[in-house]
Amino acid sequence: MHYPPHEAPTSGVQQLIGFHPDLSNPDGSTRVTLDLGPQHLNVSGVLHGGLHTLLLDVATGFACARHCAMSGPFVPMLTLSLTTDYILAVRDGQVVATGRVTGGGYKILYAEAQLHDAEGKLLSRATGVFKRAKT
């Protein structure tokens, strides 16, 4: 299946955290990048676990939104469940979350995402359940 590029709507959390979504991959997957700064680190000096989960949630949610939209307008999604596994810590550089849809139907979709560092090391991964938002 071929997906056209989509423009990601800007959100307050995107402006606050500073991540950058890319919804242009023709396979429907999404990429979310973040250049780490001191504001992203916890008291141990590594990327805060909540930001791992946030980036994975954004990547999976946008992948579901693209899947529902196909060639039409962007479709907002709601996260029903997100399970995150933390694997490695990271202190600096850029991290990239990649999300993709793994199944589902019209209203409910399943998706997964992985967060990697600039060297390609797996930092965390998540699986989630998402629902088409009522508009």
Automatic annotation (TrEMBL):
What InterPro entries does the record tag this protein with?
HotDog_dom_sf, PAAI_dom, Thioestr_dom
The signal peptide, as residue positions, is none
- The Thioesterase domain sits at 45-122
* Hydrolase among keywords: yes
Which keywords describe this protein according to UniProt?
Hydrolase
Q: What is this protein called?
A: Thioesterase domain-containing protein
Protein's organism: Sulfitobacter indolifex HEL-45
